[in-house]
Design brief:
Blueprint: E1 3-4, E2 12-26, E3 29-46, E4 49-50, E5 64-83, E6 87-107, E7 111-113, E8 116-134, E9 137-148, E10 154-165, E11 170-181, H1 185-189, E12 201-214, E13 219-237, E14 242-263, E15 266-279, E16 292-294
């Protein structure tokens, strides 16, 4: 085991504020504007962790310092149109700007600089539809186009359907979505373990499940099976001591959830998730991704 020589303490400050405006020019049109700002300032001075094996310095963790300034500003404008046949259409646009700066060192055979200063802008038009052709049937459709500076543009469709049997209150559901996640500024900019050539993670996921209410709607149980295929999943590679993209990763799993409301103002929720992750054509295990989670 490794030994922590000193207590690790660092101050951090977060500032969050925003505004939400809504205007209904008619009964069938709703206009929305959302503005948000997030800022985090953090100073770290992480002590070294002594090697578990005194003869192998690589089994320890070197001391590090960092001063991080991160800011994210977003603006979202959307318009909802209520159409015939119980159909709601929403179209909108989101603009996101992120600025991150780090000044620090890593004590790895002497102080090594970890400085970076990055800016990223994301422009995202989107459209969503909620259709209710029958009382127990709800259909969701959506598409979003993300254009990110210095990254490949991504178009993400999604579709979902829910059907509730009126007599038993049993709901069957299915959902499909494509997603993506750009690398963090730390993953791109850190000179020690970062990688400026990282690509955005992309995914295709499908889920089927059911929900069942009981005890006069004071309790419900749900279960779902899901399958996700990732491409370019970001992971740490010990062989190169850098973050890399894993070509293809498959995730198969299940989710269970029980909700109970024994009293009017008391709710209890229990959940369990199982995920089996596997990198195609590789025996490498992904780090920090547990198979079992419960709460």
């Amino acid at each position: 085991f490794n030994v922590l020589l000193n207590i690790n303490y660092f101050p951090a400050k977060e500032t969050i504020y925003g505004a939400d405006f809504s205007f209904d020019p008619s009964e069938k049109i709703v206009l929305n504007l959302k503005l948000a700002n997030y800022q985090r300032d953090e100073d770290k001075n992480t002590p070294a962790i002594a090697p578990a094996d005194p003869g192998d310095p690589f089994t320890g963790i070197p001391a590090a310092t960092s001063s991080i300034d991160f800011e994210r500003k977003s603006a979202l404008v959307s318009a909802l149109f209520r159409l015939p046949l119980n159909t709601d259409i929403t179209v909108g646009y989101e603009h996101l700007r992120e600025v991150g700066e780090n000044r620090g060192t890593l004590d790895f055979f002497g102080p090594q600089p970890r400085d970076f200063n990055l800016t990223r802008t994301t422009k995202s038009p989107f459209a969503e539809a909620k259709i209710k052709p029958l009382e127990p049937l709800i259909i969701h459709l959506g598409v979003r186009r993300d254009s990110i500076s210095d990254q490949q543009n991504e178009t993400r469709p999604s579709a979902g359907v829910r059907f509730t049997f009126p007599d038993t209150k049993t709901t069957l559901k299915a959902h499909y979505a494509e997603g993506f996640k750009p690398p963090s500024f730390f993953a791109l900019g850190d000179p020690i373990s970062g990688n400026p050539n990282l690509l955005s993670e992309t995914s295709k996921s499908a889920e089927i499940g059911f929900e069942q209410g009981f005890w006069a709607d004071r309790a419900s149980f749900s279960a779902a099976l899901f399958k996700t295929k990732y491409k370019n999943l970001i992971d740490f590679d010990f062989a190169t001591f850098r973050l890399v993209n894993r070509n293809r990763v498959n995730a198969d799993g299940a989710e269970l959830e029980l909700k109970v409301r024994p009293l009017e103002k008391l709710s209890i929720a229990l959940n369990y998730t199982f995920v089996d992750l596997e990198i195609e054509d590789s025996d490498i295990n992904l780090r920090n991704r547990p198979k079992h989670r419960a709460g």
